[in-house]
């Protein structure tokens, strides 16, 4: 498959998911969004499931790039930048519809090993990135010396996943969840009297 064709199909999948959601999504919907015939789409992918696996692989590559090097002058700022990057959508994204579709896909994970394996890659990469920032912060004194990077990373990753789910399911504002996370960093991770720069 040429890179242009792959981009068209992946972009079409993204648009179709936003419009139709996961459950109602058809190969024809994706073909229409991609500007292809259904036959052309089936030439590359046997079914919706296989196409969505490739779509998740594409999203994972983009996700890795987004979390690779969060900006910040110290680990506390880098941690906050990382969480903002993951919790808040890009300006050109349509968060509610697309996140709803992704939540539908995530709901299939307990019953679909292929989906589960790919979603676990996102979780593992995110948790490890958090852990590495926390470990660096403990080592250089940015974070308290009694912070366990493994335990804290697991908690933070779980918190972010929960905040995103709450936003999709019941509309809890992500800005509120992010503000609560800043309070957690200041009260639990930073030494007494230290504050994280949120500018």
UniProtKB/TrEMBL annotation:
Keywords: DNA-binding, Repressor, Transcription, Transcription regulation
Molecular functions (GO terms): DNA-binding transcription factor activity; transcription cis-regulatory region binding
Gene3D superfamilies recorded: Tetracycline Repressor, domain 2
InterPro entries: BetI_C (IPR039538), Homeodomain-like_sf (IPR009057), HTH-type_TetR-like_transc_reg (IPR050109), HTH_TetR (IPR001647), Tet_transcr_reg_TetR-rel_C_sf (IPR036271)
Span of domain HTH tetR-type: 3-63
Domain of life assignment: Archaea
PROSITE patterns (alphabetical): HTH_TETR_2
UniProt cross-references to Pfam families, sorted A to Z: TetR_C_6, TetR_N
DNA-binding region: 26-45
Alphabetized PANTHER family for the sequence: HTH-TYPE TRANSCRIPTIONAL REGULATOR BETI, HTH-TYPE TRANSCRIPTIONAL REGULATOR RUTR
Protein name: TetR/AcrR family transcriptional regulator
Species this chain originates from: Halogeometricum borinquense
Species lineage: Archaea, Methanobacteriati, Methanobacteriota, Stenosarchaea group, Halobacteria
């Amino acid at each position: 498959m040429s890179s242009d064709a792959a981009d068209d199909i992946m972009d079409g999948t993204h648009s179709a998911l936003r419009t139709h959601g996961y459950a109602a999504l058809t190969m024809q919907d994706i073909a229409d969004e991609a500007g292809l015939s259904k036959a052309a789409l089936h030439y590359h992918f046997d079914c919706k499931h296989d196409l969505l696996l490739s779509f998740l692989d594409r999203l994972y590559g983009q996700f890795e790039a987004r979390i690779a090097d969060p900006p910040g002058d110290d680990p506390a700022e880098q941690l906050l930048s990382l969480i903002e990057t993951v919790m808040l959508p890009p300006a050109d994204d349509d968060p509610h519809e697309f996140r709803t579709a992704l939540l539908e896909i995530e709901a299939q994970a307990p019953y679909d090993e292929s989906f589960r394996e790919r979603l676990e890659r996102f979780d593992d990469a995110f948790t490890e990135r958090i852990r590495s920032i926390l470990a660096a912060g403990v080592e250089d004194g940015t974070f308290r010396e009694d912070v366990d990077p493994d335990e804290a990373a697991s908690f933070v990753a779980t918190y972010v996943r929960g905040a995103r789910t709450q936003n999709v399911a019941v509309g809890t504002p992500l800005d509120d969840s992010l503000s609560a996370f800043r309070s957690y960093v200041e009260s639990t991770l930073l030494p007494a009297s230290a504050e994280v720069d949120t500018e």
